[in-house]
């Protein structure tokens, strides 16, 4: 008996010793060291033959060619040290693109970021045969250079005008000459298009390289928004050391004037530009240009201002005459996913798009006469990414949330809409990058408790090899005591089943009542609750004794059209109801302290935090980073998609505005914003704080100088998360 007791004691002691040897997550691991950051493949590009791919390596000094099949390094296609003619300023590059014939490589460095997708850079053309690096232009940085399909020319934008460089002769000429800051933009989108339609290039070459189609934005009537700039640091602006400067740009707020847009085609040979006739162009958007495989057929997507009618036009570049090939109408709104998922097939007789005609995102095949041939996919699940069509095998490839809204799988299906095959093998989150000939795909898989693994598969789903298994990350993570995600569902009082996850504190004891921080974003078609790898601030908080919970409420994605569009016209209402119901549900759990529940979020999530503290007394604290506080302050495209205009839906705007709920605020509120936020303007926090002051409500506020919506630069991110952590430790 004594011997058994001794063994038991030793076993317990050894277990405690092993437990004590595990490290605890520190904030530095998240904000500075990148301890749990996974390795991926940088600058992956498939080569034309589909048998090889390239990556950017050695700190941006080499482009290396690999075999999909064997993984062997086949060649080094670009090496800074071996360039015969290299400008002195090119010591490394940030990115690259091959010319269509792969004889040249367009590389760039010295990046100046503008907004979310746009940037200026110094571009260079690398002639592989001669190993020479030639500047694309000598008179200022460029934007969005794009090779012609024959590889002889590059069109690019500088100072809102489009230029054409003929590589054979080294000559450059202007295609447009009316570009002007805050007035006329050619070939690149204005601020609101870039932010809400998610792209930075508004020009496309015809397949025969004879024409360049582009969108012209006239933002003359768009009202201007401005904010002050200070000297600051990271970056430092010495010119504002004594007197602050002003940044001014055109930003159309909900219900206000948008840019007037038009579509033009420039003919290279004749040097003529013709405007396409697309019918009534008042209060419309042109979110995409898409050439078909016929150079006489330019596809133009036209969306009405309410964004509930989408038309696909086919325009003739020579005459400018167009006709409508497809019209999609919705009672509420067209999802933005449709815009990138229209593809013309190589046979010249068909096109496909991903739409919600039956209530879920599915693939539809149409003839070039605009007649529906068939629905390719079907079922109560959503396609979440369309990868393309293999003309030889007559197979479509896509990502879907078929097995669960929390997961993603990769599939193929034939053109008859039969024989759907699951190509990804592991359960969790899968995303694919297909080779140009669809012979292979690179799949990145992870799950909540498994590090990302990057693998090469054949297009039939056969594993070829593993490129990156993140073994070092797995081993490093094993030295930490990492709180794990646990997924759950619950049903609200309205009978709505919601998905969530919780991260329990270390050494969790079900007999102890813990404080809770609810973490959420909640915006339309977003998802936070995913079976996907990530160790971040939430695990840090759980390591410090907090139960962290996230729930995707109504309006979020991968659950079909009805769930996604249920918040229409009343943005913020049902979403906040669901977060409040989450707090109600958590309060029933024996291990939750109902008097210590907090909520936080960023952007739309900050909006949720603010509104929840005024609609419910469930929350002891709320942290709102860069919150929208009144949708009247936000942009046209995003806001009107879900709310229509303030002129048509004043109640929807005002009834769900934290500014108009200030007198009902309960709990402690912490507002955080960047003074140079071009997206969700600092105006939101300033006007909200004024209403809180007049309502006699105490609150905390912090402003980051010169910081945009992402609030980063230098030590900024570490400071932000340290500050929020300390606020939680003190008040929750």
From TrEMBL:
Source domain of life: Bacteria
Alphabetized GO MF terms: dipeptidyl-peptidase activity; serine-type peptidase activity
Keyword Glycoprotein: yes
Pfam families: DPPIV_N (PF00930), Peptidase_S9 (PF00326)
Keyword field: Glycoprotein
InterPro entries attached to this UniProt entry: AB_hydrolase_fold, Peptidase_S9_cat, Peptidase_S9B_N, Serine_Prot_S9B/DPPIV
Domain Dipeptidylpeptidase IV N-terminal, residue spans: 99-449
Gene3D superfamilies assigned to the protein according to its UniProt record, in alphabetical order: alpha/beta hydrolase, Dipeptidylpeptidase IV, N-terminal domain
Keyword ATP-binding appears in the UniProt entry: no
Biological process terms in GO annotation: proteolysis
Location of the Peptidase S9 prolyl oligopeptidase catalytic domain: 536-731
Protein name stated in the entry: S9 family peptidase
Naturally occurring in which organism (per UniProt): Marinilabilia rubra
UniProt lineage: Bacteria, Pseudomonadati, Bacteroidota, Bacteroidia, Marinilabiliales
